[in-house]
Design a protein that fits this description.
Elements lengths: L7 H5 L21 H4 L10 H6 L3 H17 L11 H5 L12
């Protein structure tokens, strides 16, 4: 199997878009339905096996609401130490710096 050199014409125009992909921004207009969805809907991509287990958005929402309720009902764990966070980070003694040559 031999490898071919790329066509010089194709290599020069590699960064140019094809005419069918050029977008005429002068003809653009705003989405008339965007205001209805603002803050109400979120799109999430599910893996194939998750999507198979939850075929409808209603079933996904029911499962997620159950998880939220479970998390809210769990008592929060108490921290053993009452020291502020900056003191917790300095629990090891500092290493002595070596002199520079």
């Amino acid at each position: 199997m031999t490898m071919r050199k790329p066509n010089s014409a194709a290599a020069e125009g590699a960064d140019e878009l094809r005419p069918e992909y050029r977008f005429d921004y002068s003809k653009a207009r705003s989405n008339p339905f965007a205001a209805r969805l603002k803050g109400k809907a979120v799109a999430v991509v599910l893996d194939a096996e998750v999507a198979a287990a939850f075929p409808t958005s209603e079933s996904v929402n029911t499962a997620l609401r159950a998880v939220i309720v479970q998390r809210r009902s769990k008592p929060k764990a108490r921290v053993a130490s009452r020291r502020p966070n900056n003191q917790l980070q300095r629990t090891r003694p500092a290493q002595a710096k070596k002199p520079r040559r």
